[in-house]
Design a protein that fits this description.
The structure holds two protein chains of two kinds.
Chain A lengths: L1 H21 L2 E9 L9 E4 L5 E3 L5 E6 L5 E5 L6 E4 L8 E3 L9 E4 L2 E4 L7 E5 H4 L7 H4 L7 E4 L9 E4 L11 E4 L2 E3 L10 E7 L2 H4 L10 E6 L5 E15 L9 H8 L8 H4 L14 H5 L3 E13 L3 E13 L6 E15 L2 E15 L9 H7 L20 H4 L6 H6 L2 E20 L2 E20 L2 E2 L9 E2 L2 E25 L3 E25 L14 E22 L3 E12 L8 E12 L4 H4 L4 E15 L11 E9 L2 E8 L10 E14 L4 E13 L2 E5 L10 E5 L2 E15 L4 E11 L1 E6 L5 E3 L2 E2 L2 E2 L1 E4 L6 E4 L2 E4 L3 H6 L4 H6 L6 E3 L14 E4 L5 E11 L2 E11 L2 E4 H7 L31 H4 L6 E3 L2 E14 L9 E15 L27 H5 L3 E2 L7 E10 L1
Parallel strand pairs in A: 1-7, 13-16, 51-55
Antiparallel strand pairs in A: 1-4, 2-3, 2-5, 5-6, 8-9, 10-15, 11-12, 13-14, 15-16, 17-18, 17-56, 18-19, 19-20, 20-21, 21-22, 22-23, 23-26, 24-25, 26-27, 27-28, 28-29, 29-30, 30-31, 31-34, 32-33, 34-35, 35-38, 36-37, 38-39, 38-40, 39-49, 41-44, 42-43, 44-45, 45-48, 46-47, 49-50, 50-53, 51-52, 53-54, ...
Chain B lengths: L1 H19 L24 H13 L10 H9 L3 E3 L5 H8 L7 H21 L2 H6 L7 H26 L21 H18 L13 H14 L3 H8 L25 E5 L26 H5 L7 E3 L1 H6 L3 H4 L5 H6 E2 L4 E2 L4 E2 L5 E3 L8 E3 L3 E2 L20 E5 H14 L5 H12 L12 H4 L7 H15 L6 H7 L3 H5 L2 H6 L2 H6 L14 H6 L13
Antiparallel strand pairs in B: 1-3, 2-10, 4-9, 5-6, 7-8
Helix pairs in contact in B: 2-5, 2-7, 3-4, 5-7, 7-8, 7-9, 8-9, 9-10, 9-15, 10-15, 15-16, 15-18, 16-18
Classes of the chains: A mainly beta, B mainly alpha.
Chain lengths: 1023, 539
């Protein structure tokens, strides 16, 4: 019986088996991406049939097939579809390769998303892998070189924000782009951890940016943070450790060279060299002051995230810790980040939230006396030691009557003082969306940003002057406690209606209202302590305090229509109306329309036969965006009580009119025109995007200078005057080879900018950054904005007779030029040297920026090279003034020993001593700022699942080096010169519009913090 | 239930629509919460006083008495010589190489005009001030506040017309002033100064009735006299000066320059400073007077033991009479004004040492050696071992009675029908100060060195007397300009041979160009009514 049963069963299985072979059987498998993470919801279809399945939360599928001749087609949005012949396999696992240039890519646009194919405007997208490709503390830095038309200039020490410009500069005012994080307008993106970023979209033209109407004129940076995906819980750990350093130094004189210079007769010989009682002062030390202010700065970063969910709810939690010591002594940044993003679905309702909390503690770069740390380090006498234990405070400085100079000890400025800047930032939003009818959705989004900045500063008493002259001393401890808060609400409500008629007419409608309120406060307090350096708290000794409050409100309405016919002919139009509290009652509202068109030529029948062309699209857009970034309350009159005097040794408070109001202030408007072309060849292996744009700003909001003689309290009156134009090209080129073991890709982005001030509403110019009593740059009609202004030099007079005869003696008459002085160029050709010969000596903004990204991988290895560069810009290097002007005795560049003398006829370095023109703002201090930098080189190796015995999904180790090679003609420490930022003793209002001064400071190197080189090693684990 | 389901979607749409348009626009109208508003100002005595106090504040900018004004005057008159650490912009004054972009000149110009604008703010709101009920503010007090503003407006215009010649005359009543005025002929500016002073003499209080430091009738008469003297209206000047009553010379010359004896019997007007009142914003206020800047950098900048940027010029040192010169005694004022090695300081507890200077020869200048002497006037060394904290609370004198007496002497001597003897009498009052007691002009000893028999001789004696009495008080440069003696002085062998050799080579005084400051380039660039062609000659 048993035997019989066995035979029967055998027979049964045979029959069943053969029946399966020739009839139905089930194939199972898992679909994963290249990181071995499950792909959920992928389509698995038997080719040519309606038989199909969808992968589950673990990426698994099961499908019934009927023939070994069948082929499986596995597809998912964002991945290249794969076809696999089934054969006799019963388990088929599939690794989907992402289709990086996929036309189905969805981009985030203002108040929604859009398929890349239907976009008619200019949007640059930066994906998360690019953002985290090189380690950077903030998102601002991660954006550098990544998007065509976006310029990011690092502004130095850890914790200071970068300058970001979209399509150059089109306003004399605040030119910062609008930052929108998950739909919430925010003041800054530098405190967001790069590892939390899903993507960044840069909206550059009217059809995309005008959606943000009032705020869009400087471009919009849209940040989308990562969300959880349905499926297994994924844990991800990213960490790196490295060191930053800079070996760039100016070549200044040592003690022996300095003595030769100081006693040469060019200056009053300091008593230290003539009076025997000071002889020992000269032999005590040999200090290289530059080496004393720089250090190697270790940096480390850890990011941990947990994400997952199911079809009803997804989540992602992340935490990050960054500790970055600066390359200038005592500078650094420590930051903690937390983020929770979650989404829920219930029926027709979707609810979600993004919430982030960051806390940073910055040890800022400091300076003193209006001179940068580097300026002090260049100028300090090399024979003085850094420390002197017997001096109060413990540092050594000069005695001006003995040393004949008074450069401060830069090490004391950093080491003795204790400065702390702490910032806590909460940014979050809660949104709900309900589908009312098919295609009709209502969405409501409530956003909040709450930022608190606390600055605590202690400047202890000290005396660096051991000869009793008190050259640099402070007899008391000076304590500053400052607070600033910023609270912004944003409430957005909108309807969207998606409709497809006759299968070809695709219509999307948007109606939206937005309400925004900002409340910002600041409080600055200061007192002294004459008794002790140990109590870092306020007291009633010389107290001083002030506070301020600003409110700002905005109300907006927006309507938008997107239409396309069969994905071929695209049309989009929008209109936005904004009202801002920064304007008077009659001028409060602004209207910002836009229209755009697109043509997907590749979809036309006549191109469908052309094999190579996978994408070809023409785009054009036109529209207006606005800018209300002028100080609050400028339209109304007010009186200020910050003028003081004293009677009977007591302070009395004076009050006077706080400048002149302008009740007619209105929106600054920018008209943006953009044409673009997208091309994809050979299944989008090769891609190209090209843009040409013209941005014209009108009714520029300006603080128009008033004649000094009007005695106006502000010195300016706010007005809508002037216009400016910026034009340029942008190209984004890509090549991807994602087949085989060796895969590589290259992408190049390039942007050009040409800017011209067309009118300043009657003002002949506006002047800017002041150095040594002179304005170095200005805005003037017919010139690029914020250009450097000064004399053009042309060699050196070799004899008094030359100087006296030159240009009819006019240069001699003007500034007493003699032999050894610079010859000024007669730039206006009138045969005379007059103040009118001061001219454009350089443009601080680049004509072109470039980013080149190269990636290659072979099996587990990956290599990344990232090159970024700027071209056509100039840098005003005021360090050259300190190094070579020789107007007073200070330490200086060794080249001063080879200066002009009657017996040493130099044609580049003039005579020493206080000579007016030789030290004035001139081409002498302006240098070519172009550079090409190898920003990053990274080599990584990934161990996969099977090698890791399934403990980890992925484990990658890498080593990386930043800024190792820089090709430039610039003689300064680093050509990446943004604006100089150092800690001040007061805080400003957070989020208040930045003044023109901030634009003026760009490209002037006053001893800016050099961009460090760094070497790091990192570990990434996913399980 | 069914009904609910049926109407659910429309209800939702409706409520969403309401939400969409519920944003209110009424929050958009804002008033500045940080500042006072015009609607509520000039309603109380405290507010009026506050508006007047603001006018004084412009005297305390670094363009004015915190820094620029003394460097400019003292360097140009070569009462100072600069040490090597002197910064370029101040040294340019010494060498006369400053141009129209000179920032401290711009700060001086702008500070004065800001003072004018603040004065106009008070004067042109007279109606509101006068509308304040008498019980809150008496008519006499209303008048005196307006009087102070007028005196200060006159003072600021005096600073302007003295240094720049023709200047735009803003009175704050014509709307055209908003965007700039052309240069007004200086006669018209002088006329306004006189009118404001005369008004102030009737409105201000007498010194005895006023808070120390505020402008008084005496201040106004003195400025009126000085303004007339500068216009060579000697009779008018004398008439004004003669209205000054109740003032005396300090018995001790140095009382004029000590913190403890400020606003003393000799003081007609001085700029108030006080470290106790605070000085946290002193470095930040080159022209706006914003913040607290109630101390001056003078003491630290000039201090022979501190920064020592300047020292007393050899020429000034030599100007003081010694027993060897006048056969009687060395001028005690030299000891009050100047420190030299060996002098006592810090309540006579310490002994001063000031190093001399050696300069090596170069291809263009020979080797040099000179002795340096420090300033004592306006320094705190009389009571302290060091200039503390960089700032000083000693008030800066604008007009004191010794100056008035010397101006009376000049006016009397030069007025039609004036008496030299009377004039010499005024001058001798200054020499006869209780602790000075120098031999008198007209005596045999003085006739040997400074005869006063003719007007010309008298003027040379007066020049000498003003130089030593008022040294370092920002008076000599203006004197030399109005007497047209500047060129003679700066080209004299006596001065040139006393200068360090490098300074002598660098001095490029140009006559008459350097008699006036340049109009700041920024004013020319921005003011549509002032063109490059309107610039002072030579700049």
């Amino acid at each position: 019986m048993k035997k019989l049963l066995r035979v029967f069963l055998l027979l049964f299985f045979f029959v069943a088996g053969t029946a399966g072979a020739y009839a139905q059987r089930t194939v199972t498998g898992t679909v994963v991406d290249k990181d071995q993470l499950p792909v959920i919801g992928a389509n698995v279809v038997v080719k040519g049939t309606t038989i199909g399945a969808i992968t589950d939360g673990l990426g698994k599928y099961a499908i019934v097939v009927t023939s070994t001749g069948n082929t499986l087609v596995v597809s998912f949005i964002g991945y290249a579809p794969q076809e696999i012949s089934i054969g006799t396999n019963s388990v088929i696992n599939v690794v989907l390769q992402s289709e990086s240039t996929a036309l189905d890519e969805v981009v985030v646009v203002g108040y929604g998303t859009q398929k890349r194919t239907t976009v008619t405007g200019a949007i640059s997208s930066v994906t998360s892998d690019k953002i985290t490709a090189l380690p950077s503390a903030g998102l601002d830095q991660a954006l550098q070189g990544r998007a065509a038309g976006v310029t990011v200039i690092n502004n130095g020490a850890p914790g200071f924000e970068s300058t970001i410009r979209v399509r150059g500069i089109s306003t004399v005012n605040d030119a910062n782009p609008l930052f929108v994080v998950d739909g919430v307008v925010t003041t800054s993106i530098s405190n967001i951890s790069p590892s939390d970023i899903e993507s960044i979209q840069v909206l550059k033209d009217a059809s995309t940016a005008a959606i943000y109407g009032s705020l869009g004129s400087n471009g919009v940076i849209m940040v989308t943070t990562k969300k959880g995906k349905a499926g297994a819980v994924v844990v991800n750990l990213d960490s790196y450790y490295g060191v930053q350093y800079s070996d760039a130094r100016y070549n200044v004189m040592n003690s022996a060279q300095y003595k030769e210079y100081a006693t040469s007769g060019a200056f009053t010989t300091p008593a230290v060299y003539t009076d025997p009682q000071y002889a020992s002062r000269l032999t005590g030390a040999e200090t290289n002051w530059q080496d004393k202010i720089y250090q190697k700065g270790p940096m480390q970063n850890y990011d941990l995230s947990v994400s997952g969910g199911n079809e009803f709810a997804t989540f992602r939690l992340s935490a990050g810790y960054l500790n970055q010591r600066g390359i200038v002594i005592k500078t650094g940044l420590e930051r903690y980040n937390f983020r929770v993003n979650s989404d829920f679905k219930k029926g027709r309702l979707k609810i979600g939230e993004n919430l982030s909390l960051s806390y940073s503690a910055q040890d800022p770069l400091a300076d003193n006396g209006g001179r940068s740390l580097l300026e002090h380090a260049i100028k300090a006498a090399p024979y003085l030691p850094v420390y002197n234990a017997s001096n109060p405070g413990g540092f050594q400085g000069p005695t001006s009557s003995v040393d004949g100079q008074d450069a401060e000890n830069p090490v004391r400025i950093m080491e003795l003082n204790n400065l702390q800047l702490n910032t806590q930032n909460i940014l979050g939003n809660l949104y709900g969306e309900v589908e009312l009818l098919k295609g009709l959705k209502f969405k409501s989004n409530l956003g909040l940003q709450d930022q608190r900045t606390i600055s605590n500063q202690l400047f202890p008493s000290y005396n660096d002057d051991n000869l009793g002259g008190n050259t640099h001393r402070q007899t008391f401890a000076n304590i500053f406690k400052n607070r600033a808060t910023y609270t912004a609400f944003l409430f957005t409500n909108n309807f969207t209606y998606d409709l497809t008629l006759a299968e070809k007419h695709n219509i999307e409608l948007l109606a939206l209202t937005e309400y925004s309120s900002v409340h910002s406060t600041v409080m600055n307090t200061n007192s002294r302590n004459n008794l002790s350096n140990d109590v870092n708290e306020l007291s009633n000794t010389n107290p001083s305090m002030s506070s301020g409050t600003v409110y700002y409100y905005r109300v907006s309405y927006l309507g938008r229509l997107n239409y396309n016919y069969d994905g071929k002919y695209l049309f989009s139009a929008s209109i936005r109306k904004d009202a801002s509290s920064r304007f008077g009652p009659n001028k409060r509202w602004g209207t910002f329309p836009s229209v755009s068109l697109g043509w997907n030529i590749a979809k036309e029948a006549f191109l469908s036969d052309v094999q190579g062309i996978s994408n070809l699209k023409l785009r054009a857009s036109w529209g207006k965006a606005g800018n209300d970034k002028i100080s609050d309350y400028a339209y109304s009159a007010s009186y200020t009580s910050n003028m003081n005097y004293d009677f009977g040794n007591a302070l009395v408070v004076g009050t006077t009119a706080a400048g002149r109001p302008n009740p007619d202030l209105k929106w600054e408007e920018m008209t943006m025109t953009n044409v673009g072309l997208d091309l994809g060849l050979f299944k989008s292996k090769f891609t190209l995007s090209a843009e040409y744009y013209i941005n014209e700003s009108n009714d520029l909001l300006m603080q128009v200078p008033l004649p000094l003689s009007t005695g106006d309290w502000n010195g300016t009156i706010p007005q809508n005057s002037g216009s400016m134009e910026t034009k340029g090209f942008e190209f984004q080129l890509g090549y991807n080879d994602f087949e085989g073991d060796f895969q590589w890709s290259a992408s190049l982005n390039l942007g050009t900018f040409k800017n011209k001030v067309k009118s300043l509403g009657g003002a002949s110019y506006i002047s800017g950054y002041s150095f040594e009593g002179e304005d170095l740059n200005r805005c003037q009609v017919g010139q690029p904005a914020f250009y450097f202004y000064g004399w053009q030099f042309d060699g050196i007079f070799q004899s008094d007779a030359d100087a006296a005869a030159y240009m009819g003696g006019t240069e001699k008459a003007l500034n007493s030029a003699t032999a050894g002085d610079f010859r000024i160029k007669d730039t206006n050709g009138d045969g005379k040297i007059t103040p009118a010969d001061r001219t454009n000596i350089g443009n601080p903004f680049p004509k072109m920026t470039l980013g080149l990204d190269l990636n290659a991988s072979y099996k587990g290895f990956d290599l990344n090279l990232f090159i970024s560069g700027v071209y056509g810009n100039k840098i005003y290097n005021t360090n050259l003034f300190d190094l070579l002007s020789m107007d007073r005795l200070f330490n200086a560049d060794v080249r001063v020993l080879d200066r002009w003398t009657p017996t040493n006829p130099s044609n580049t370095i003039p005579r020493a001593g206080l000579v007016a023109s030789n030290a004035q703002a001139s081409s002498r201090f302006v240098e070519d700022g172009a550079y090409t930098k190898l920003k990053n080189i990274t080599l990584g190796y990934t161990l996969h699942k099977n090698l890791l015995k399934n403990k980890f999904t992925k484990l990658r180790i890498y080593v990386s080096a930043q800024n190792m090679i820089c090709i430039t003609k610039y003689s300064g420490l680093d050509p990446e010169v943004g604006r100089y930022l150092a800690s001040g003793t007061t805080l400003g209002q957070i989020g208040s519009p930045q003044t023109t001064g901030q634009n003026y400071a760009n490209g002037i190197d006053v001893g800016n913090y050099p961009i460090p080189k760094s070497v790091i090693g990192g570990l990434q684990i996913t399980f | 239930m069914k009904i609910l389901k049926k109407h659910f979607t429309p209800a939702l749409v409706l409520s969403a629509w309401v939400l969409l348009f519920s944003c209110k626009a009424d929050k958009l109208a804002l008033t500045n919460p940080n500042n006072l508003s015009p609607e509520t100002f000039f309603k109380s005595a405290a507010q009026v006083q506050s508006a007047v106090d603001a006018v004084y504040g412009s005297l305390q900018t670094t363009g004015m008495y915190n820094r620029g004004i003394w460097y400019g005057n003292d360097n140009m008159s070569h009462e100072n010589t600069c040490n090597s650490q002197q910064e370029a912009d101040k040294r340019q004054w010494l060498n006369f190489t400053q141009d129209a972009t000179h920032s401290l000149t711009e700060a001086y110009w702008n500070s004065c005009f800001r003072g004018v604008t603040k004065a106009n703010f008070v004067i042109n709101n007279a109606k509101l001030i006068n509308d304040i009920p008498e019980v809150f503010l008496s008519q006499a007090m209303k008048d005196k506040y307006i009087g102070e503003a007028k005196f200060l407006r006159a003072l600021y215009y005096f600073y302007l017309v003295d240094k720049f010649g023709d200047v735009p005359l803003y009175l704050g009543v014509d709307p055209a002033e908003n965007f700039g005025l052309p240069r007004t002929p200086k006669a018209q500016v002088w006329a306004q100064i006189e009118a404001d002073c005369i008004d102030a003499t009737t409105k201000c209080l007498a010194k005895a009735d006023e808070v120390p430091g505020r402008a008084t009738k005496g201040s106004a008469w003195a400025l009126l006299g000085k303004a007339r003297l500068y216009q060579q209206n000697y009779a008018g000047a004398l008439e004004a000066f003669k209205n000054i009553t109740g003032y005396n010379l300090e018995p001790v010359y140095f009382n004029n320059f000590m913190e403890e004896t400020e606003n003393g019997p000799e003081s007609l007007f001085e700029v108030q400073f006080s470290k106790a009142a605070g000085y946290s914003d002193a470095w930040n206020s080159d022209r706006t007077d914003q913040g607290v800047n109630e101390a001056t950098f003078r003491a630290q900048e000039y201090s022979c033991l501190g920064w020592f940027n300047v020292f007393v010029s050899e020429d000034l040192w030599n100007e003081f009479e010694t027993a060897a010169v006048n056969g009687v005694k060395t001028d005690p004022r030299r000891g009050y004004c100047v420190y030299q090695t060996g002098d006592k300081y810090d309540n006579n507890t310490l002994t001063m040492t000031i190093d001399p200077v050696t300069v090596a020869a170069t291809a263009t200048t020979p080797a040099d050696f000179y002795v340096r002497r420090g300033w004592k006037k306006y320094q705190n060394y009389y009571k302290a071992a060091a200039e503390s904290d960089n700032e000083s609370g000693i008030n800066m004198k604008v007009i004191r009675y010794a100056d008035v007496l010397l101006m009376m002497a000049e006016s009397e001597a030069k007025r039609p029908g004036g008496s030299l003897a009377t004039a010499i009498g005024y001058m001798n009052q200054v020499r006869n100060r209780a602790d000075v007691l120098m031999p008198l002009y007209g005596s045999a000893a003085m006739n040997a060195i400074y005869p006063v028999g003719t007007l010309a001789d008298f003027m040379l004696a007066l020049e000498h007397e003003r130089k030593v009495e008022l040294c370092g008080e920002q008076i000599r440069f203006s004197d030399l300009v109005r007497w047209d003696r500047l060129n003679t002085f700066l080209t004299s062998a006596k001065l040139l041979n006393s200068l360090p050799k490098a300074d002598k080579a660098a001095l490029v005084f140009s006559y008459p160009k350097n008699m006036l400051y340049p109009i700041p380039q920024k004013e020319i660039d921005v003011n549509p009514k002032i063109e490059q062609a309107d610039q002072n000659p030579g700049y």
